[in-house]
Write a structure and sequence with these properties.
With 167 residues, the protein is an all-beta fold. The chain is 0% helix and 34% strand. The protein has strands at 4-5, 10-11, 16-17, 22-23, 28-29, 34-35, 40-41, 46-47, 52-53, 58-59, 64-65, 69-71, 76-77, 82-83, 103-105, 110-111, 116-117, 122-123, 128-129, 134-135, 143-146, 151-156, 162-165. The strands form four sheets. A ten-stranded mixed β-sheet has the order 1-4-7-10-13-16-19-21-22-23, with no helix packed on it. It has a six-stranded parallel β-sheet with strand order 3-6-9-12-15-18, with no helix packed on it. It is globular. The relative contact order is 0.11. Bound molecules: coenzyme A. Coenzyme A (COA) is lined by residues 78, 112-113, 128, 130-132, 146-147, 162.
């Protein structure tokens, strides 16, 4: 095996895990998930069926990547950030997986700790989502997004330096 899975984690069948990837304590990876090379999944990360995760992705502790979410290369998911896949959930009237709304997080974007991403949106290349923000719309490439609901307050570069602020 050219990847690492801690013995406390559970990997279902038909999962692809790339070279150099590390999956730490108490993770659960469901069938059909694809995780690229050189990724790091912290403690208590859940990856749902058929989720695709690119190369160099870092997922901090306590993150669930639900079906319908795709993370491109070098995405950073801060601790306890939240993805969703049903816009208007009802326990008694489940929408079913065919109606999950997709979320795409593009190359190099970062999501801050405890941020929530409402499903059906794309987070652009290199975007930076602040800690605790709630994303309710598509996020432009390299946008710095803050607050509830998240608004663009500036721009960042690929390294995450803030290069402009909106007054
Ligand atoms: C959003 C962020 C990138 C802003 O960085 P910054 O602009 O250098 O931060 P500053 O401290 O200069 O704050 C600028 C303003 O934004 C506010 N602000 C900063 N972070 C905020 C946040 N997460 N939510 C709401 N407002 C925030 C500050 O209070 C300040 O407001 P003011 O101008 O009214 O005083 C940063 O605060 C952040 O949230 N980073 C994510 C951290 C994280 O989750 N890391 C995960 C890995 S451990």
């Amino acid at each position: 095996m050219d990847f690492f899975v801690h013995e406390s984690s559970y990997i279902e069948e038909n999962v692809e895990i790339g070279k150099g990837t590390k999956i730490w304590h108490f993770c659960h990876i469901q069938a059909g998930a694809k995780i690229g090379e050189n990724c790091s999944l912290g403690q208590n990360v859940y990856v749902s069926s058929n989720v695709k995760i690119g190369n160099g992705v870092k997922i901090q502790n306590n993150v669930s990547v639900y079906e319908g979410v795709e993370l491109e290369d070098n995405v950073f998911c801060g601790p306890s950030c939240v993805f969703t896949n049903v816009l208007i959930p009802r326990s008694k009237f489940p929408k079913g997986k065919d109606n999950y709304k997709k979320t795409l997080v593009k190359n190099g974007a970062s999501i801050g700790a405890n941020a929530t991403i409402i499903c059906g949106h794309t987070i652009g290349i290199g975007a930076m989502i602040a800690a605790g923000a709630v994303v309710t719309s598509d996020v432009p490439d390299f946008a710095l997004m803050v607050g509830v609901p998240a608004r663009q307050v500036g721009s960042v570069d690929m390294e995450g330096q803030i290069i402009s602020r909106i007054k």
